[in-house]
Amino acid sequence: MNVAVAIEPDWARMARPQADGYDTRAILDLVAQRRDPWRRRDAGGAPTLFGGRVAVRNRDFAGFAPPQFVPAPPDHPHLAEAEAILSAWPEVATQFPELVDTVQVWSDTTQTAAVTALRPGSSSHSIEEEFGTVMVTIDSPFGTAQALVHEMAHHKLRALGVSIERARRLVANDPADRYRSPIIVGRLRPMTAVLHAQYSFMHVTRLDVAVHDAPGTPDRLRAQAVYLLARNVPRMEAGDEELRRYLVTDAAGARFAGAFLDWSAEVLGRGRAILDAAGYGIPPL
Fold first, then answer.
1. pLDDT, tens digit, for every residue of 217-242?
2. Are 199 and 271 members of one domain?
3. Strand 133-137 vs strand 102-108: parallel, antiparallel, or unpaired?
């Protein structure tokens, strides 16, 4: 269903992927209003995902540094597996090819099949000026799926007006003030960066829950989902607390943040229940 979106979106509906595609259309409207609007690029004969809609390419600049990272084959089978994993979360499986037209792929030479089978993960990156492009490592299918969702979420939040170091709307904290990030824990960061970490990894955590709960998920993937939840839930609980204590918003941000924190509570509650049932008993950070 296509839902018309006004220039000023319903900010509460931008906090989580919407089943009717409302937030996707709003984001596309926002990026269309930019001085240099995003124009979807054709695959041009490159390998593709999502029914030919998302091109898979290599790049030789602004990516990951060698020798640890090297370009990966654009037709690597883990990419199709990652796409299949995203199908456990239908709203995002639909949203991703609407907002992303290019995936640039890398391999982490420190990873082996034995390591990633036990500890799935990924590295990823995206650039604000390159809406629609994400860079991911492909050594673990589940890790790659997480990376795709993670970087898409960064692009979404930037489109809403929040960059890593500053915000045009939503966040009203002083950019000079510093807070605890749930991901980069070695230094304090501006609130905009904390929100980016929380928003992107809440998407990742919701994917972990979706994979665990989806009917027919293979036991191997379900076990990996539990492992990933054990990593992500405590971090997201800490980030959630930081936002609830210190996030300052404008009027639009109040609506967005309220809905986002409600969604977070729902996802983290389910994540905790999964961990408890699995016998993890991990205390919050």
1. 999 999 999 999 999 999 999 999 99
2. yes
3. parallel
